[in-house]
UniProtKB/TrEMBL annotation, chains A, B:
Secretion signal, residue range per the UniProt entry: none
CDD domains associated with the record: HTH_LacI, PBP1_LacI_sugar_binding-like
Keywords carried by this UniProt record: DNA-binding, Transcription, Transcription regulation
Pfam families membership: LacI, Peripla_BP_3
Alphabetical list of SUPFAM superfamilies matching this protein: lambda repressor-like DNA-binding domains, Periplasmic binding protein-like I
GO MF assignments: DNA-binding transcription factor activity; transcription cis-regulatory region binding
Classification via SMART domains: HTH_LACI
Gene3D superfamilies linked to this entry: 3.40.50.2300, lambda repressor-like DNA-binding domains
Domain HTH lacI-type stretches: 5-59
Official protein name in the record: LacI family transcriptional regulator
InterPro entries, alphabetized: HTH_LacI, LacI/GalR-like_sensor, Lambda_DNA-bd_dom_sf, Peripla_BP_I
Originating species: Flavobacterium restrictum
Amino acid sequence: MKKKVTLKQIAKELDVSISTVSKSLRNSLEIGEETRLKVQAFAKFYNYKPNNIALSLKNRKTKTIGIIIPEIVHYFFSTVINGIEQIANEKGYSVIICLSNDSFDKEVLNMEMLANGSIDGFIMSLSKETQYKADFHHITEVINQGMPVVMFDRITNEVLCDKVIIDDKTAAYEAVQSLIDKGRKKIALVTTVDYVSVGKLRTDGYIKALLDNGIPFNENLIIKIEDVDTCEITIGKLMEDKAIDAVFAVNELFAVTIIKTAHKIGLKVPDDLAVIAFTDGIISKYSTPTITTVSQSGSKMGKKAAKMLIDRLESEEEDGEENYKTEVIETHLIERESTN
Amino acid sequence: MKKKVTLKQIAKELDVSISTVSKSLRNSLEIGEETRLKVQAFAKFYNYKPNNIALSLKNRKTKTIGIIIPEIVHYFFSTVINGIEQIANEKGYSVIICLSNDSFDKEVLNMEMLANGSIDGFIMSLSKETQYKADFHHITEVINQGMPVVMFDRITNEVLCDKVIIDDKTAAYEAVQSLIDKGRKKIALVTTVDYVSVGKLRTDGYIKALLDNGIPFNENLIIKIEDVDTCEITIGKLMEDKAIDAVFAVNELFAVTIIKTAHKIGLKVPDDLAVIAFTDGIISKYSTPTITTVSQSGSKMGKKAAKMLIDRLESEEEDGEENYKTEVIETHLIERESTN
DNA sequence: CTGAAAGCGCTTACAG
DNA sequence: CTGAAAGCGCTTACAG
């Protein structure tokens, strides 16, 4: 068991000063060639690597990015992390991930923990509870301390910072429009409860598409659910009543559940019922029939977010704070078997 | 923008020494009550929080766990992280995650980076390439430096350390046995290429189950694939020839592809073809028909791994190194529609 | 060309 | 009861 070697040990061993060792290893030409090479050889032999913690303390930056997301067992968030990680790695940053599990308290705790020197900046997506409470003091506080934050997907307009989102409203609009183009008129929207910002925007897009096409908007066709199980009952009823010929589901779990329910009732997808889901994930791709989705590239969002954060970290010029940007990631419809 | 406050600043402001501030905040009874309360009030007002990096340097431990996994966009690994994170949080640790993307070089790089003081110990699952090369020097090196490592799922016996695995062989055996119990005799095994340790063990279990039941083992029914697309062709042929009446697939992606291929050919699942998949994930749950799986609780593995690592980190007694444990997580069959 | 000193932010054994 | 000093592992401006 040979412990990691430090500058001090090398210095002692070689009978020079710590400064000399440090400078030699950083190839400072202040140091004579002979000493320099000797130190370098020795360091290499002992596989010296500088201690990151010491460097962080000295440089007052850690070269690590903190990510806070609601949930990791979620295809979308995994792809975002993938994107972040890719850019981060290219630029020599590591990432440290904390999960809020959609809890406000855990989100606050995690942020406070990481903000105490562990990271240089945050990339985050709000927990449901945070959106519900609309309490963002923990985020503004961090920003006020001079630590940059980039929010993605589940954001809030009440905090000024860089953001990367998709245009949920337009995306929903286009999805619904595509259903209308295919002759569907009785389109249900299956969505989540309102306080999650994206749910709201998608609903707006849905309504607008209907109205723009002269289709009266029917309150009863909007189904707000919190958990998937209740969805089956409500939707099943609508289907049996032949009240709908298409469904726009706000996520793929809802979509697949709806398709299964339809089958049980004896309806054919897409013939009797067309289905589109928001958020392209692994379920849509492997469901039977495969599900048409609005693709929302998590990886692209992650990359964009990472770039924005790192740019800000590395632009020395203490930017006037007020040049925050909101980047919009384009979406597109991936047509599969569940629509025709 | 009020920057984070440090002990030094508080000391200056209150006109006492840094030591006094530090001790007051740690409630040392060495300090007079009056001073102590004054300092605490002041610190609270300015929302003082000690700098983690400085603490890490001082204490020579970071209270963070490094996780290295091949891929995050993978239900199984996500659930493992979830499990790790849960235990880590309970015990006051954070986690820092790096992805190897199944690349040996990236795995090495990530480990070296984290090993330089950023973390106290590793939890990892080997990349495919690492298993293929069978080069584990980066891992033994870290261990030799006194940094504990816990490996899970994709492990190697060539490295001595704590491990948490599932009993792949037995699990596979049981799955195949259950097919046999249902009267299936021509059971194909769809697996990955051999060098991934788990693939090998599952194959062993498969063969053993057959032999134990007096079913001759037919080399041609073992299909080794590296990517899903080729799987369709090979399997399709076997199905058309009526050469098989059941499939044991080593992961759920293979399973769902097989089911789709069967449908195309006009075979019914499970009537004409029973399907079992290893690794219970989201696809199996939502596929049509739903897929019977061997559940392998990622969350349990993660929790176990985290516990083992933290136990080791916190047992001062520099354990004799040689008491490494391998924990086996139990699996069980989740019966769904794809078998009957 | 080499090294002593100061410092990043903290803790703690030791004096006073 | 309070503070100066040493130290965690490193870097760098400054002397010599």
